[in-house]
Amino acid sequence: MFESKIKAVSMTLVAFALLAFSYQALAGSAHLTWNANSEDDLAGYKLYYDTVSHAGTCPTGYAQSQLTGNVTSYWFDHLTPGQRYYFQLTALDTSNNESGCSTDPGEVSKLVTFRSDFNNSHKVDIFDFAILSANFNQTDCGNVADITRNCVVDIFDFAILSQEFLGEF
Ligand SMILES: [Ca+2]
Ligand SMILES: [Ca+2]
């Protein structure tokens, strides 16, 4: 009796996980990291991105931008798999002054892959599943299989992998 109750609860959880993510279109991710700006009044950074290069005109021309706090890395998780994206970075101070664009390096680009393509093979298959399985229940922030970026590899990450399974470009 007790055992079957537990089972019912876990099955509900799985159904909820699949439902919660079913509305999301397939999405790709890119992880950007940079060296910290050392000025005293640093407030954060602004990441510019687009699907075409604007290397010569930065920051003018980029279609989109993302503010971050005072951090040195950021995950983009809603990009299009198979699309190349171009990124640039500026710093903002507490008076909202914006620096020029980073020059070392300048613009960087990445061919974006699926969030659950952990081994960057341009397809989501049994090898990515094996990586997620090996990391299941791990609680380290930054784990490659933590697709939801909540510092635990769990059923929600598995739900995303299931949805992207066999995706390739
Ligand atoms: Ca893969
Ligand atoms: Ca997670």
Mean pLDDT over all positions: 86
Oligomer: single chain
User: What is the structural class?
Assistant: alpha+beta
CATH architecture of the largest domain, by name, is: Sandwich
What does this protein structure show overall?
The protein has 169 residues and is α+β, with helices and mostly antiparallel strands. The protein folds into two domains: 13-25 and 116-164, Orthogonal Bundle (Type 1 dockerin domain), CATH 1.10.1330; 28-114, Immunoglobulin-like, CATH 2.60.40. The chain is 24% helix and 25% strand. It contains three helices and seven strands; from the N terminus they run H-E-E-E-E-E-E-E-H-H. The protein has helices at 2-21, 126-135, 155-164; strands at residues 28-33, 42-50, 64-68, 73-79, 84-93, 108-111, 113-114. The strands form two sheets. It has a four-stranded antiparallel beta sheet with strand order 3-2-5-6, with no helix packed on it. A three-stranded antiparallel beta sheet has the order 4-1-7, with no helix packed on it. Helix 1 (2-21) crosses helix 3 (155-164). The chain is globular. Residues 117, 119, 121, 123-125, 127-128 line the site of one calcium ion (CA). One calcium ion is lined by residues 117, 119, 121, 123-125, 127-128.
